[in-house]
Amino acid sequence: MIITQLSVFLENRSGRLTEVTDIFSENQINISALSIAETADYGVLRMIVDKPEIAVRVLKKNDLSVHTTEVVAVITPDIPGALNKVIKYLSEEEINIAYMYGYSHENKASIIMKVNNPQKAVEILQNKKIELISASDFYEI
Questions:
Q1: Most buried by CB count within 10 Å: which residue of 74, 82, 83, 117?
Q2: What is the model's pLDDT at position 36?
Q3: What span, in angstroms and rounded, lies between the C-alpha atoms of 121 and 11?
Q4: Helix, strand, coil share (%) of the chain residues, nearest 5
């Protein structure tokens, strides 16, 4: 239920994102989810990909700074209060959410979270009957 996320640090200039997508296209690596955060000089491209080990290898081979992070992904109904319920379950057990990103489709919301204790978060959410996404299932969404 824990998924490997890649974080790539890119100089904030035209063409850098294209370099990453070119590398992935050439190596048949599919991006299932992504988020970009920026500062004045750099951006952080966070991604869930179908072949994380290969992705790390080819990105490093192309002199890109990349590291992996364990994240947790959940599916909730796409209704008011569903995300709030998940966040409350975690905060009640002192799980800190560093960041999250997500999307909704066909009345369901998929949410990816970076938490301070992924294994404990998974246990809490499983006990509360929250639908978690495994890495293999995530790639099929």
A1: 74
A2: 92
A3: 33
A4: 35, 40, 25
What six digits make up the tokens of 103?
């999307």
The count of C-alpha atoms lying within 13 angstroms of the C-alpha of 74, restricted to the half-sphere facing its C-beta, is 26
Predicted confidence at residue 38, as pLDDT, reads: 82
Q: Which two tokens stand for residue 62?
A: 């192309």
Low-confidence ranges of the chain (pLDDT < 70): 140-141
The contacts of residue 71 (CB under 8 Å, 6+ apart) are 2, 3, 4, 5, 48, 112, 113, 114, 115, 118
Residue-wise pLDDT for 110-120, tens only, equals: 999 999 999 99
Spatial separation of the C-alpha atoms in residues 8 and 16, rounded to whole Å: 10
How high is the pLDDT of residue 8?
96
What is the number of other CB atoms lying within 10 angstroms of the CB of residue 71? Answer: 24
What domains are there in the chain, each with its CATH number? 2-68 (3.30.2130.10), 70-138 (3.30.2130.10)
